[in-house]
Amino acid sequence: MIHSFDTNDAEKYGVNAAVILHNIRHWIKHNHANGIHCHDGVTYTYNSVKAFREIFPYLSTSMIKTALKKLTEAGELKQGNFNKSAYDRTIWYGIDNAV
């Protein structure tokens, strides 16, 4: 599998966060093009940390959590919960003006 990232993002947030951000941006563009997962004018994508571990097997659970926290605290990502089941705690990630 080939993973890539924006070097500007890597300088700002680190390589781990840049790789995850690149993946999230890809899926947000895909979802926007398909008109799905739009809430309050923002298009979202979602994944659990476990799912991110499957996508990025070279990153540990703590590395993923740290990268997502860093991106959220920097305002790069918005978080939401639009799950149909109340017990589903999968976090949805959106980016203002991403597309």
Fold blueprint:
Elements lengths: L6 H7 L1 H19 L4 E2 L2 E6 L1 H7 L5 H13 L4 E3 L10 E4 L5
Antiparallel strand pairs: 1-2, 2-4, 3-4
Helix pairs in contact: 1-2, 2-4
Characteristic key phrases:
single chain, 99 residues, alpha+beta, four-stranded antiparallel sheet, 4 strands, globular
Explain this structure to me?
It is globular, with a radius of gyration of 13 Å. The longest helix is centred in the first third of the chain and has 19 residues. Strands 1-2-4-3 form a 4-stranded antiparallel beta sheet. The mean pLDDT is 94. The chain is α+β, with helices and mostly antiparallel strands.
| Strand arrangement in the largest pleated sheet | 1-2-4-3
Uncertain segments of ≥5 residues (pLDDT<50)?
A: none
How confident is the prediction overall: mean pLDDT?
A: 94
How would you classify the helix and strand content by structural class? alpha+beta
Terminal residue distance: 25 Å
Beta-strand content bin: 15-25%
Could you state the order of secondary-structure elements as H and E?
HHEEHHEE
Compute the number of helices: 4
Biggest sheet statistics: 4 strands, antiparallel
